From TrEMBL, chains A, B:
<keyword id="KW-0324">Glycolysis</keyword>
<comment type="pathway">
    <text>Carbohydrate degradation; glycolysis; D-glyceraldehyde 3-phosphate and glycerone phosphate from D-glucose: step 2/4.</text>
</comment>
<dbReference type="GO" id="GO:0005829">
    <property type="term" value="C:cytosol"/>
</dbReference>
<dbReference type="InterPro" id="IPR046348">
    <property type="entry name" value="SIS_dom_sf"/>
</dbReference>
<dbReference type="GO" id="GO:0006096">
    <property type="term" value="P:glycolytic process"/>
</dbReference>
<dbReference type="InterPro" id="IPR023096">
    <property type="entry name" value="G6P_Isomerase_C"/>
</dbReference>
<keyword id="KW-0963">Cytoplasm</keyword>
<dbReference type="InterPro" id="IPR035476">
    <property type="entry name" value="SIS_PGI_1"/>
</dbReference>
<dbReference type="InterPro" id="IPR001672">
    <property type="entry name" value="G6P_Isomerase"/>
</dbReference>
<feature type="active site" description="Proton donor">
    <location>
        <position position="399"/>
    </location>
</feature>
<protein>
    <recommendedName>
        <fullName>Glucose-6-phosphate isomerase</fullName>
        <ecNumber>5.3.1.9</ecNumber>
    </recommendedName>
</protein>
<feature type="active site">
    <location>
        <position position="430"/>
    </location>
</feature>
<dbReference type="GO" id="GO:0006094">
    <property type="term" value="P:gluconeogenesis"/>
</dbReference>
<dbReference type="GO" id="GO:0004347">
    <property type="term" value="F:glucose-6-phosphate isomerase activity"/>
</dbReference>
<comment type="function">
    <text>Catalyzes the reversible isomerization of glucose-6-phosphate to fructose-6-phosphate.</text>
</comment>
<comment type="pathway">
    <text>Carbohydrate biosynthesis; gluconeogenesis.</text>
</comment>
<dbReference type="InterPro" id="IPR018189">
    <property type="entry name" value="Phosphoglucose_isomerase_CS"/>
</dbReference>
Amino acid sequence: MQRRLALVKIPGFEYSEAHSDPLRDFNEEIIMSEVQFRNFDETKAYKALQKLQAPSLSAVLDGKRVTSCNSSYELGKQETLHYNYAAKQVDNQILSVLQELSDEQQLIDKFRLIASGEYMNSGENRRVLHHLTRGQLAGSVSHEGRDLGAFYNEQNSRIADFAEEVHAGRITAENGKPFSTVVQVGIGGSDLGPRAMYLALKNHVNSSEGSGEAFRGRGEKLNARFISNVDPDDAADILREIDPSTTLFILVSKSGTTQETLTNEALVLDRLKHAGVKQPRKQIICVTSETSPLAKSSEYLDSFFIDDFIGGRYSSTSAVGGAVLSLAFGADVFREFLDGAHAADAAAMEAGILKNPALLDALIGIWERNFQGFPSTAVLPYSQAMSRFPAHLQQMDMESNGKHVNRDGEQLGYLTGPVIFGEPGTNGQHSFYQLLHQGTDIIPLQFIGFLNSQDGLDVNWEGSTSQQKLNANLAAQIIAFAKGKKDDNPNKTFQGERPSSLLYSKSLTPRVLGALLAHFENKVMFQGLVWNLNSFDQEGVQLGKVLTKQVLGDGELDPALQEFSALLGVRS
Amino acid sequence: MQRRLALVKIPGFEYSEAHSDPLRDFNEEIIMSEVQFRNFDETKAYKALQKLQAPSLSAVLDGKRVTSCNSSYELGKQETLHYNYAAKQVDNQILSVLQELSDEQQLIDKFRLIASGEYMNSGENRRVLHHLTRGQLAGSVSHEGRDLGAFYNEQNSRIADFAEEVHAGRITAENGKPFSTVVQVGIGGSDLGPRAMYLALKNHVNSSEGSGEAFRGRGEKLNARFISNVDPDDAADILREIDPSTTLFILVSKSGTTQETLTNEALVLDRLKHAGVKQPRKQIICVTSETSPLAKSSEYLDSFFIDDFIGGRYSSTSAVGGAVLSLAFGADVFREFLDGAHAADAAAMEAGILKNPALLDALIGIWERNFQGFPSTAVLPYSQAMSRFPAHLQQMDMESNGKHVNRDGEQLGYLTGPVIFGEPGTNGQHSFYQLLHQGTDIIPLQFIGFLNSQDGLDVNWEGSTSQQKLNANLAAQIIAFAKGKKDDNPNKTFQGERPSSLLYSKSLTPRVLGALLAHFENKVMFQGLVWNLNSFDQEGVQLGKVLTKQVLGDGELDPALQEFSALLGVRS
């Protein structure tokens, strides 16, 4: 157990002495608040939870529970995102201990520390500022004399101006034609999040049949594609399908040294030259840190910046997502997306767990993982537009909380992050739901649904629309998983007692998407804080990089590595 | 424990009395062989395995082990697929008991029963004949006087002829133009497998820079797309991007009653009419069973048939995959794919586990699941072309073996199918590998790699090509997972002892893809036989369908279902 003093501005508390650490140059009044970091199994709540029993869903899940077990985000412009936990195996007693856990682990105070710019990425000695990319939660944060909120806003403004110039045809391809396509070249956090967000909003923006909501019918301004894998076939496939001569490329690498991304840049440059472009880097913009090798080159058309305080997997709301989304859809769509995320962040500051959906979701997940012993969680959006959202969450969650040491580097004695997987419904129903219903492990489920489709193209067939069928399936699955069904034939028996939650809203708009993203980011953050680990580093990716470099070098290798390299054709 | 007599032709055994069950009209000599179905935990091997300890990979994994722990498929035309298990936590003692397990559970005899047309889908009283769609393993199988192998071949020939007519422009769209696009409309097994196979071969067929292998450079004959989800946005997205007036649609539903597929047909018909097509069903072909409502309609352009003995998730090598793959790439590509699958099937008949990669993979998986206690398995192809292969395996494995009762419907007392998930490398490295390396659960890994890229478009950057970097990463990961790394900083410590296997070949060709598919199908089959369950039914999907129908009807609902339906806008 470690006791340390941390500095945070908490509204409602009295202000006391000013900040004295020169590394932490908050430019405003702050207060001293005592925050303690302790392992989860050292809390009183941990011991209390060990003694509690999960309620039976088939016993408790009635209509009243469905209407009452609901916690909502108000997102502005009359948009709302709801979190329903009626089909989770919790009761008032469990929820009350989970509230104690939240208080005991000081989750809200620690979130305020993060939002205030505290160096909560302890191992790497970095602040954690993705919340600040969409709005200010807890006073401004300055670093080496610069207001970082203003810096992120400035990058967004520069992107908005740049996108406007491209859309207006004032910035063109080398041949003078307007750009028709934008291709993001990045991997991991520079790929999965922006790609998932792009796919989630594409139909919304392109719909020509909608009911007049904000961005409907405007149409994509540039068609977007993504290259990520170092496998050359990934780039080959995309580069074959586009016209490089009218394509704008976005090279995304915070460090400016990501092997996959620079290798793919080489492939892109090669194709641009083949297409007759004489100065190929003048059709490339960079999103990188100001100190990276990419930023220092004047060969590129332009560069937009992030910094070390934005983790890759949390960068969708920074310039990493901003460039491609603004170029594809317009900067106003990206701004709505940020506003939705900011509204959800603000709601995550609430200390009462029943009024804070992200916190509640996090704590129920802890209950399922550490006390019910469930090894994985399925994310199941009933929306084809969210087809890659589960892959993004898989990264965000598993890379953040797949850790075996606490924030001080001590081995932990309890389970941390689960495996996350998922596919859109109803597709999943025809795939892996068999195991979810009747397998020997119980997998908690996270459903996502929308009352309306994005596009509006729909038909009535056999008495209902596709959208009605989609949501009828979703409602039916929640109940089938929760309540099961007895049958004289054990093969047709459903044991039920498979817990699920439901996030839902009227439509999948930019604002709702931003809130959904922030919901999961904050859920993962709260879980990491309960487990007392650092959710913001990723030391587990280093060893593979080191060994890869060895294989590509010419020094002596571990004999088994030598043989595997040989049989894969890399070394002889 | 159940004892029954089953009928099977096993080469090398003496023939005895003829088949007497009128339901099972084998048209050839058969022998009586005693096959026993017993639960896994009733075997001697189960008890023996409980006493064994997994070896330490950092202790045993040397260069010699890498070259010796290899089992290969010879696929004809000088193509080979290798299965390397050097980095699995098995030793000679464990392998020897796994051989005993295979013998004791009569896995090869039972595979022969399946291949011979025995009614091994016991609950549904169906044969299991997907192997027969690609070749004959154990004598012909006849049903109601029809030779089923000949029937499947006939469908393939009809598809080949039809595809040839389309490619030659003799079968055209209503407006007289040649078809430019083919869109498969299906869900689950009618979608995931064919889609994954299409993506896996697209670059191979389209490459214009390759080294002259069989199908390189021919180019896709029709561009293929897929509509699956009942979410109307799925169809909207695809239908916006194609020209319906020159698109051929394939409606795939074995029963001819799949809700999602018929709903999407209504959307397709609507779009075809909007595009001015007067007889829209004349731009649709069906893949269905001969007795389905779809087969009975003369409105469609044509129909191709499967039967009840081809399970949806095993249908990629039937007309379900054959129609779209033959139309997109040509029937010769599809035939190569079948030949690769057949070669792998034939190899799976081998009783010695070290010479039978699918069987060995299955048994090592059993060791990991039931004795090492690992809850899930990651499938990690280092090939972007295989991006949807893990999703297909997720369906095939989890729907087949996610069961809690044995084949006689009795509750099982041991774990069955694990959660399957995965994404292509190197993308996964930048996503969830953190948890795989340093999380609190151990997840066994199934790597797939190829010496060459499909397309051939590649560049040398910083001393190596993209393909070399890709495979250097793959080799490095195997060793990093197996051996880990000690460090004074526990946060930089890798415990290692994360087992993995590697399937690899020279290139991802149609033949190799067929073998990979069959490898996993047969692996899942063998595991189901060890667990003594029916891998070929899916009772777990029924309850959701029943409740969905209730929601879409107007009868009274379970009160919680009523409320969930209301908040999702389906009922008020």
